[in-house]
Amino acid sequence: MTRLAPTLEAFFTTRLSGQLGASTHTIAAYRDTWRLLLRYAADTTGTPAHALDLAQLDATLIGGFLTHLEVERGNSIATRNARLAAVHSLFAYAAVEHPEHAGTINRVMAIPAKRRQRRTDITYLTEPEVTALLRAPDPNTPAGRRDHALIQVAVTTGLRVGELTGLRWPDVHLGTGAHVLAHGKGRKDRVTPLDQQTVAVLRDLPIPTSSQGHVFVNRTGTRMSRDAVAARLTLHAKTAATTCPNLASKTITPHVLRHTAAMRLLAAGIDSTVIALWLGHESIETTQIYLHADLATKEDALARTTPTGVVNSRYHPPDDALLAFLQNL
User: Fold this and answer.
1) Which of 29, 28, 25, 56 is nearest to 40 (CA)?
2) Which of 11, 202, 296, 306 is 20 to 30 A from 67, alpha carbon to alpha carbon?
3) Which of 88, 145, 185, 223 is catalytic?
């Protein structure tokens, strides 16, 4: 009998935090997965979570849990696969610590991620829509100037919402070679250049006395939350829709601004590999969605192709015996 509790505790404290140095977001995601799984296992087996044995979490139970996520909780395939990745990570650790459960562990590790259709219908803003959204915040209020700067930075840099809200003044360089230092997913930093307009907008924001604070702060001077950013965008999108009706049919989220930045780069003729570096994509395949979404790029590619018309002619076999032999193989 191998109790799951000590293994799970060691996994979070020793493996994730101590050895891998996982980010707080990763730890939180894994924590939530295992809270859901333990509740499901307790309900399924009738064994309290603290008394569960590692052998009870076999492939059948894990498979049932994944089905439960999709069918009963309504989770997407992407979420289902993310939960499975958290389970696999624990079992990979358990394989070393408890080789006596190798059979159970191997069967769980063999559960594959579920294939899903990659979306190509992304939402992004056109230039008139970007202009209308930038004009929506009230420039006569501190909150309005902050929101205008946040939108400006988002549509020119393509930062993720967490990178935007986590941006600090020491990460912002407004002199020669202006840029921001983004602290991205997986503790990976990247430098993203700023254009002159974005530099001018950021210069108008008040810098805290310590010069160490966050760039985008709420009324109390602390970091804006993701929900606060989403709420402000919804508010300004509603205002902008009065002058740009197209916005009324779009749900404007922080990620839509990130998509917009990518599509603006693509429209400017920037190569997809550069866009991948700009956005901090782990794989260039992630960037391909923008190529699929850009109809203008496809039309340009079609215009560059050779016409399909061919001259009709009768086939004549080669006269050379050797070539004829190879042709008939």
Assistant:
1) 56
2) 11
3) 185
Confidence of residue 295 (pLDDT cuts 50, 70, 90): low
Joined tokens for residue 116: 């899903």
**Residues 213-240: pLDDT tens digits?**
899 999 888 899 999 999 999 999 999 9
Instruction: Establish whether 315 is a catalytic residue.
Output: no
**Can 73 be counted among the known catalytic residues?**
no
Q: Is 255 a catalytic residue?
A: yes
Q: Which of the residue ranges 2-11, 56-65, 141-150, 283-292 would you say has the lowest mean pLDDT? A: 283-292
Q: Catalytic annotation on 238?
A: no
281 is catalytic: yes
- Residue 48's DSSP bridge partners are none
Average pLDDT of the chain is: 86
- The one-letter amino acid code at 293 reads A
Picking from 186, 130, 193, 134, the residue whose alpha carbon sits closest to that of residue 159 is 193
- Could you tell me the CA-to-CA distances from 321 to 59, 315, 329 in Å, in that order? 62, 16, 13
Which amino acid appears at position 272 of this protein? S
Enclosing H/E stretch for 175? none
* Residues 191, 302: Cα–Cα separation, whole Å: 35
In the set 68, 98, 255, 292, the catalytic residue is 255
Residue whose tokens read 């579920």: 114
- Token pair belonging to 63: 């498979």
Q: Report CA-CA distances (Å) from 16 to 25, 106, 109, 155, 219.
A: 12, 21, 18, 34, 35
**DSSP code of 114?**
P
Active site residue 258: yes
What does R_g of the chain's alpha carbons equal in angstroms? Answer: 27
Q: Is 268 helix (H, G, I), strand (E, B) or coil?
A: coil
